[in-house]
Write a structure and sequence with these properties.
477 residues; mainly alpha; 0% strand; disordered N terminus
Amino acid sequence: MTTDHRAPRTPTETSSRRGLTAFLAAPPPAPRLDDATVARRYPRLRLQVFLGIFIGYAAYYLIRNNVPLVSTILKDENGFSTVGLGVITNGVLLAYGFSKFLSAIVSDKSSARFFLPIGLALSALANLFIAFVPAVGASVAFFAVVMIVNGFFQGMGWPPSGRTLVHWFSTSERGGKTAIWNVAHNVGGAGAGGLAGVALASFGTWQSVFWFPAVVCLVIAVVALVLLRDTPESEGLPPIEEYRNDPAPVETDAADEGASTWSTIRRYVLTNRTMVNLALANVFVYTLRYGVLVWAPVYLSEVRGASLGEGIAGFSLFELAGIPGTLLCGYISDKVFKGRRSPTGILFMTAVGVAVAVYWLSPVEGTLWISLAMLVAIGGLIYGPVMLIGLQALDLSPRSVAGTAAGFTGLFGYVLGATLASTGIGLAVHAFGWDVTFVLILACVVLAIVLLAVVGRDERALNERKRARDAEEAEAR
């Protein structure tokens, strides 16, 4: 291992620093530290940055979209219809989807240390605006506009987290680490319900469900800034592939060196069949995720006779159940299917379909616990495929565009999936009722399974090529 040298700056890095402000641009490689210092600092910084993206990203969920938590209040006291609530929810998810993709392009060349906390702080300010400007609660259109702004800032959370995972954790360990990190979704989602309950009990107004968690997130943004770092190279450490002797399964060709960012994105993301199929699968996975989650308080209230508190409890249980479900999904993917993600996703999506059917068809006059139990089951199962699709996008693309690839799948999931889950389901319920709506939800299960099966063939072929390449390199040595 070479000591005290500075890696040369590539043309792409140089141009990116001119294109971004010096404040957000990714720092250049620092002089390489000696072996003893590397051995001491690398494990500590890996844990530190992991905690940073876990805590920071969980906080995004505290203020992402708290409208469903007070949907019955907004309907009863502010006169918002189910269609209006769907438009508001859809606005934030659409904005989030576009922002996740665009932010990923910028984030791949930016410092994760600053990118994530800045987005969190800006989202907190948007939630404070909702709470303290009375005109927002008086108009569906105004509410939707502010939530769109909030959704745009929310898109700044995932890309730097994905960048951090790619740069600090190698391929062979990334599945387990990503599964653990993905639990941040559920911790934050459940925390949103918990903070909403505390806010309503303490302050008694729907506005408190927005400003109270926003204040918490401003504090967490500072904590994330302290914990996060950009890349190992920027800290004087070797790349993670060198440190763990674990080469990436997909690498850019030599011909791509010095190519423009757009050319690389077009080749490895936009026109890549595997990425396109992953993105389409994500549409239906996210339709299921948000179609059940967003409308849980309304469905439980209108159909199952649940109170506001019970509806919020269902929302939180859905999120909490995702924690063991995601970890189990990662374990099955690694141990049972030997690192193949698609079969695991198909297994979990099949189980989701069964749970959704029971959630829908259980007798209305029955006890509420059956509906809540099915919400727990759906939440425990759906977050596994959500995690796996993001992980496959990271694994099956070069490191230089990994965040953009994940953002691309997220763009489809949130833009198209969000439209189907929020506005689409709102319109379906309004026009046809809940029975037809659940038939459409189950159709999404089938389509997601078909697309994951197609992706599975591509994943298998890429893994076979990687094994052949490794064997050739071993024989050459």
